[in-house]
Specification:
Elements lengths: L2 H11 L4 H8 L3 H8 L7 H11 L3 H5 E4 L2 E6 L3 E2 L7 H27 L11 H20 L3 E4 H17 L5 E4 L2 E3 L2 H7 L8 E8 L5 E8 L5 H13 L7 H8 L4 E4 H17 L6 E4 L2 E3 L2 H6 L9 E8 L5 E6 L1
Parallel strand pairs: 5-8, 10-13
Antiparallel strand pairs: 1-2, 2-3, 4-7, 5-6, 7-8, 9-12, 10-11, 12-13
Amino acid sequence: MKFGDKLSKLRKEKGLSQEGLAEKLEVTRQTVSKWELSQTKPDTDMLVKIADVLEVDVSSLIVDEEKGGKKETISKGYDIDETKPRTWLLVILIILALVISVILINKVVIDKKAKSKEDSWGIFNIFKGFTSDMNKKDFNWNYETNSGTQRGINVTEMLDKVITNNKTNDRKITVVYNNTTTDEPDVIKSLKSNFDEWTDYEVSLDYDEDGYVNKITIEDLKNGSAAAKAESMVNGATQDNEDISVDAFNGPLKVYEGSRMGGFVKVALGSFADSNQKNNGHLITVVYGGNNITDPDAIRNLKSNFDEWTNYEITYSYDNAGYINQATIK
Protein backbone atom coordinates (compact mmCIF):
# COMPACT_ATOMS: atom_id res chain seq x y z
CA MET A 1 0.00 0.00 0.00
CA LYS A 2 1.39 3.36 -1.01
CA PHE A 3 1.84 6.19 1.46
CA GLY A 4 -1.09 8.19 0.04
CA ASP A 5 -3.46 5.28 0.29
CA LYS A 6 -2.29 4.44 3.79
CA LEU A 7 -2.71 8.05 4.92
CA SER A 8 -6.25 8.15 3.51
CA LYS A 9 -7.13 4.85 5.19
CA LEU A 10 -5.77 5.89 8.60
CA ARG A 11 -7.45 9.31 8.36
CA LYS A 12 -10.84 7.74 7.67
CA GLU A 13 -10.34 5.25 10.51
CA LYS A 14 -9.91 8.20 12.84
CA GLY A 15 -13.09 9.75 11.46
CA LEU A 16 -11.29 12.79 10.11
CA SER A 17 -11.99 14.65 6.89
CA GLN A 18 -9.11 15.99 4.82
CA GLU A 19 -9.97 19.44 6.16
CA GLY A 20 -10.05 18.15 9.75
CA LEU A 21 -6.63 16.50 9.41
CA ALA A 22 -5.23 19.61 7.73
CA GLU A 23 -6.42 21.75 10.63
CA LYS A 24 -4.69 19.52 13.20
CA LEU A 25 -1.48 19.54 11.16
CA GLU A 26 -1.73 23.29 10.49
CA VAL A 27 -1.58 22.82 6.72
CA THR A 28 -4.12 23.38 3.94
CA ARG A 29 -6.66 20.79 2.81
CA GLN A 30 -5.04 20.85 -0.63
CA THR A 31 -1.76 19.72 0.94
CA VAL A 32 -3.43 16.71 2.53
CA SER A 33 -5.15 15.95 -0.77
CA LYS A 34 -1.83 16.00 -2.65
CA TRP A 35 -0.33 13.62 -0.09
CA GLU A 36 -3.18 11.16 -0.48
CA LEU A 37 -2.99 11.39 -4.28
CA SER A 38 0.80 10.70 -4.01
CA GLN A 39 1.51 13.98 -5.81
CA THR A 40 3.75 15.15 -2.96
CA LYS A 41 5.08 13.68 0.26
CA PRO A 42 5.61 15.25 3.70
CA ASP A 43 9.04 15.83 5.16
CA THR A 44 10.36 13.95 8.18
CA ASP A 45 9.14 16.44 10.79
CA MET A 46 5.64 16.41 9.28
CA LEU A 47 5.65 12.59 9.22
CA VAL A 48 6.23 12.58 12.96
CA LYS A 49 3.39 15.06 13.43
CA ILE A 50 1.02 12.98 11.23
CA ALA A 51 1.84 9.81 13.17
CA ASP A 52 1.13 11.63 16.41
CA VAL A 53 -2.27 12.90 15.20
CA LEU A 54 -3.27 9.50 13.81
CA GLU A 55 -1.85 7.74 16.87
CA VAL A 56 0.33 5.35 14.90
CA ASP A 57 4.07 4.62 14.65
CA VAL A 58 6.01 6.52 12.02
CA SER A 59 7.21 3.18 10.69
CA SER A 60 3.64 2.14 9.90
CA LEU A 61 3.34 5.18 7.64
CA ILE A 62 6.54 4.58 5.69
CA VAL A 63 6.39 0.79 5.21
CA ASP A 64 5.22 -0.15 1.75
CA GLU A 65 3.82 -3.67 1.44
CA GLU A 66 4.00 -5.17 -2.03
CA LYS A 67 3.41 -8.76 -3.10
CA GLY A 68 3.64 -10.07 0.43
CA GLY A 69 7.12 -8.60 0.92
CA LYS A 70 8.26 -5.44 2.69
CA LYS A 71 10.53 -2.76 1.37
CA GLU A 72 11.52 0.19 3.59
CA THR A 73 11.07 3.74 2.42
CA ILE A 74 11.93 7.01 4.16
CA SER A 75 9.81 10.07 4.58
CA LYS A 76 10.16 11.45 1.08
CA GLY A 77 9.53 8.20 -0.76
CA TYR A 78 13.13 7.27 -1.01
CA ASP A 79 13.67 3.55 -1.44
CA ILE A 80 16.65 1.97 0.21
CA ASP A 81 18.03 -0.42 -2.35
CA GLU A 82 20.23 -2.86 -0.53
CA THR A 83 21.68 -4.14 -3.81
CA LYS A 84 23.43 -0.87 -4.64
CA PRO A 85 27.16 -0.80 -3.73
CA ARG A 86 27.93 1.72 -0.98
CA THR A 87 29.93 4.73 -2.20
CA TRP A 88 32.32 4.79 0.75
CA LEU A 89 33.25 1.16 0.23
CA LEU A 90 34.00 1.86 -3.42
CA VAL A 91 36.22 4.81 -2.50
CA ILE A 92 38.17 2.69 -0.01
CA LEU A 93 38.71 -0.02 -2.60
CA ILE A 94 39.96 2.52 -5.15
CA ILE A 95 42.40 4.05 -2.64
CA LEU A 96 43.63 0.60 -1.62
CA ALA A 97 44.18 -0.33 -5.25
CA LEU A 98 46.19 2.87 -5.84
CA VAL A 99 48.37 2.27 -2.79
CA ILE A 100 49.11 -1.30 -3.83
CA SER A 101 49.92 -0.11 -7.34
CA VAL A 102 52.36 2.53 -6.10
CA ILE A 103 54.09 0.02 -3.80
CA LEU A 104 54.46 -2.49 -6.62
CA ILE A 105 55.78 0.16 -9.04
CA ASN A 106 58.24 1.34 -6.42
CA LYS A 107 59.52 -2.20 -5.91
CA VAL A 108 59.98 -2.62 -9.64
CA VAL A 109 61.97 0.63 -9.83
CA ILE A 110 64.21 -0.40 -6.94
CA ASP A 111 64.84 -3.88 -8.31
CA LYS A 112 65.45 -2.65 -11.83
CA LYS A 113 67.98 0.02 -10.95
CA ALA A 114 69.56 -1.98 -8.10
CA LYS A 115 69.70 1.09 -5.92
CA SER A 116 71.99 1.24 -2.90
CA LYS A 117 70.63 1.13 0.65
CA GLU A 118 70.65 4.90 1.11
CA ASP A 119 68.58 5.31 -2.06
CA SER A 120 66.06 2.67 -1.04
CA TRP A 121 63.22 5.20 -0.91
CA GLY A 122 62.77 4.54 -4.64
CA ILE A 123 60.24 6.92 -6.22
CA PHE A 124 59.69 8.45 -2.78
CA ASN A 125 63.19 9.99 -2.78
CA ILE A 126 61.66 13.42 -3.38
CA PHE A 127 59.86 13.14 -0.03
CA LYS A 128 62.99 11.84 1.64
CA GLY A 129 64.89 14.93 0.50
CA PHE A 130 62.15 17.26 1.71
CA THR A 131 62.03 15.56 5.13
CA SER A 132 65.81 15.69 5.41
CA ASP A 133 65.87 19.45 4.67
CA MET A 134 63.18 20.10 7.27
CA ASN A 135 65.07 18.12 9.93
CA LYS A 136 68.25 20.02 9.12
CA LYS A 137 66.55 23.41 9.44
CA ASP A 138 64.98 22.45 12.77
CA PHE A 139 68.30 21.16 14.08
CA ASN A 140 70.34 24.20 13.01
CA TRP A 141 67.71 26.74 14.06
CA ASN A 142 68.36 25.99 17.75
CA TYR A 143 71.91 27.31 17.38
CA GLU A 144 71.75 29.79 14.49
CA THR A 145 69.40 32.01 16.49
CA ASN A 146 72.19 32.45 19.06
CA SER A 147 75.10 33.01 16.65
CA GLY A 148 76.99 36.28 16.30
CA THR A 149 77.43 38.77 19.14
CA GLN A 150 75.40 37.47 22.07
CA ARG A 151 74.87 38.30 25.73
CA GLY A 152 76.10 35.71 28.21
CA ILE A 153 72.53 34.78 29.13
CA ASN A 154 71.91 33.73 25.51
CA VAL A 155 75.17 31.79 25.38
CA THR A 156 74.28 29.71 28.44
CA GLU A 157 70.81 29.07 27.01
CA MET A 158 72.41 27.76 23.82
CA LEU A 159 74.82 25.57 25.81
CA ASP A 160 71.80 23.98 27.55
CA LYS A 161 70.48 23.02 24.10
CA VAL A 162 73.89 21.54 23.19
CA ILE A 163 73.94 19.50 26.40
CA THR A 164 70.48 18.09 25.70
CA ASN A 165 71.39 17.34 22.08
CA ASN A 166 74.64 15.57 22.95
CA LYS A 167 72.83 13.38 25.47
CA THR A 168 70.06 12.31 23.11
CA ASN A 169 71.28 12.73 19.54
CA ASP A 170 73.87 10.87 17.48
CA ARG A 171 74.92 14.18 15.92
CA LYS A 172 77.27 15.59 18.57
CA ILE A 173 78.19 19.26 18.72
CA THR A 174 81.66 20.28 19.85
CA VAL A 175 81.99 23.43 21.96
CA VAL A 176 85.21 25.46 21.79
CA TYR A 177 85.90 28.07 24.47
CA ASN A 178 89.35 29.37 25.41
CA ASN A 179 91.49 26.23 25.83
CA THR A 180 88.59 23.79 26.05
CA THR A 181 87.31 21.72 23.12
CA THR A 182 84.67 19.16 24.09
CA ASP A 183 81.39 17.48 23.22
CA GLU A 184 80.93 15.94 26.69
CA PRO A 185 77.71 17.19 28.33
CA ASP A 186 79.22 17.39 31.84
CA VAL A 187 82.22 19.42 30.65
CA ILE A 188 79.99 21.76 28.63
CA LYS A 189 77.81 22.23 31.72
CA SER A 190 80.87 23.29 33.72
CA LEU A 191 81.70 25.93 31.09
CA LYS A 192 78.44 27.80 31.75
CA SER A 193 79.83 29.42 34.90
CA ASN A 194 82.37 31.34 32.77
CA PHE A 195 79.74 33.55 31.16
CA ASP A 196 78.45 36.74 32.73
CA GLU A 197 74.77 37.31 31.87
CA TRP A 198 75.20 40.84 30.50
CA THR A 199 78.64 40.62 28.96
CA ASP A 200 78.89 40.23 25.17
CA TYR A 201 80.53 37.21 23.54
CA GLU A 202 81.08 36.22 19.93
CA VAL A 203 79.51 32.91 18.82
CA SER A 204 80.46 31.29 15.49
CA LEU A 205 79.23 28.02 13.96
CA ASP A 206 80.78 25.30 11.80
CA TYR A 207 78.85 22.68 9.81
CA ASP A 208 79.51 19.06 8.83
CA GLU A 209 79.41 17.75 5.26
CA ASP A 210 75.64 17.19 5.53
CA GLY A 211 75.03 20.82 6.49
CA TYR A 212 74.34 20.24 10.21
CA VAL A 213 75.92 22.41 12.93
CA ASN A 214 78.75 20.37 14.46
CA LYS A 215 80.94 22.95 16.22
CA ILE A 216 80.28 26.12 18.22
CA THR A 217 83.14 28.47 18.99
CA ILE A 218 82.69 31.08 21.73
CA GLU A 219 85.11 33.99 22.11
CA ASP A 220 85.39 36.71 24.73
CA LEU A 221 85.06 40.28 23.46
CA LYS A 222 87.45 42.93 24.71
CA ASN A 223 84.64 45.35 25.48
CA GLY A 224 81.60 44.45 27.59
CA SER A 225 77.96 45.30 26.88
CA ALA A 226 76.46 48.77 27.11
CA ALA A 227 75.02 47.92 30.51
CA ALA A 228 78.41 46.70 31.75
CA LYS A 229 80.07 49.88 30.46
CA ALA A 230 77.47 52.03 32.17
CA GLU A 231 77.98 50.20 35.45
CA SER A 232 81.72 50.65 35.15
CA MET A 233 81.28 54.37 34.52
CA VAL A 234 79.11 54.69 37.64
CA ASN A 235 81.67 52.81 39.71
CA GLY A 236 84.54 54.93 38.44
CA ALA A 237 82.72 58.22 38.59
CA THR A 238 81.35 57.83 42.12
CA GLN A 239 84.32 56.20 43.80
CA ASP A 240 85.48 58.31 46.76
CA ASN A 241 84.22 61.50 45.13
CA GLU A 242 81.25 63.17 46.75
CA ASP A 243 81.71 66.36 44.73
CA ILE A 244 81.19 64.66 41.34
CA SER A 245 79.56 66.86 38.71
CA VAL A 246 75.90 66.47 37.78
CA ASP A 247 76.72 65.27 34.26
CA ALA A 248 79.30 62.76 35.48
CA PHE A 249 76.83 61.42 38.06
CA ASN A 250 73.68 61.34 35.93
CA GLY A 251 75.22 60.38 32.59
CA PRO A 252 75.96 56.68 33.24
CA LEU A 253 72.57 56.18 34.92
CA LYS A 254 70.61 57.58 31.96
CA VAL A 255 71.15 54.33 30.06
CA TYR A 256 68.65 52.61 32.39
CA GLU A 257 65.82 55.13 32.01
CA GLY A 258 62.67 54.18 30.09
CA SER A 259 61.06 50.86 29.22
CA ARG A 260 63.49 48.05 30.07
CA MET A 261 63.36 44.26 30.34
CA GLY A 262 63.72 42.70 33.78
CA GLY A 263 67.27 41.54 33.14
CA PHE A 264 68.31 45.13 32.41
CA VAL A 265 66.43 46.37 35.49
CA LYS A 266 68.52 43.98 37.62
CA VAL A 267 71.71 45.55 36.24
CA ALA A 268 70.29 49.02 36.97
CA LEU A 269 69.59 48.02 40.59
CA GLY A 270 73.19 46.90 40.93
CA SER A 271 74.35 50.32 39.70
CA PHE A 272 72.01 52.17 42.08
CA ALA A 273 73.27 50.07 44.98
CA ASP A 274 76.93 50.65 44.06
CA SER A 275 76.31 54.39 43.70
CA ASN A 276 74.73 54.64 47.16
CA GLN A 277 77.52 52.56 48.67
CA LYS A 278 80.29 54.73 47.20
CA ASN A 279 78.68 58.14 47.12
CA ASN A 280 76.86 59.04 50.31
CA GLY A 281 76.53 62.63 49.20
CA HIS A 282 74.03 61.81 46.45
CA LEU A 283 71.88 58.89 47.51
CA ILE A 284 69.35 57.40 45.09
CA THR A 285 66.04 56.23 46.53
CA VAL A 286 64.63 53.22 44.70
CA VAL A 287 60.82 53.19 44.70
CA TYR A 288 59.20 49.84 43.93
CA GLY A 289 56.06 48.10 45.20
CA GLY A 290 55.29 50.87 47.70
CA ASN A 291 58.77 50.74 49.27
CA ASN A 292 61.38 53.53 49.30
CA ILE A 293 64.85 52.01 49.60
CA THR A 294 68.32 53.57 49.80
CA ASP A 295 70.24 50.78 51.54
CA PRO A 296 72.56 49.12 48.94
CA ASP A 297 71.94 45.56 50.13
CA ALA A 298 68.19 46.05 50.25
CA ILE A 299 68.30 47.45 46.70
CA ARG A 300 70.23 44.42 45.48
CA ASN A 301 67.69 42.12 47.16
CA LEU A 302 64.99 43.64 44.94
CA LYS A 303 66.46 41.86 41.92
CA SER A 304 64.53 38.66 42.66
CA ASN A 305 61.25 40.51 41.98
CA PHE A 306 61.95 40.99 38.28
CA ASP A 307 61.39 38.50 35.48
CA GLU A 308 64.20 38.53 32.91
CA TRP A 309 61.96 39.02 29.86
CA THR A 310 59.14 41.17 31.27
CA ASN A 311 59.13 44.90 30.48
CA TYR A 312 59.28 47.48 33.28
CA GLU A 313 59.40 51.28 33.30
CA ILE A 314 62.19 53.21 35.07
CA THR A 315 61.66 56.95 35.69
CA TYR A 316 63.95 59.40 37.53
CA SER A 317 63.37 62.33 39.87
CA TYR A 318 66.01 64.98 40.61
CA ASP A 319 67.05 67.07 43.61
CA ASN A 320 67.41 70.86 43.57
CA ALA A 321 70.99 70.59 42.32
CA GLY A 322 69.94 68.41 39.35
CA TYR A 323 71.27 65.08 40.65
CA ILE A 324 69.19 61.93 40.23
CA ASN A 325 67.81 61.23 43.68
CA GLN A 326 64.98 58.79 42.97
CA ALA A 327 64.43 55.87 40.58
CA THR A 328 60.83 54.68 40.34
CA ILE A 329 60.24 51.20 38.84
CA LYS A 330 56.80 50.10 37.64
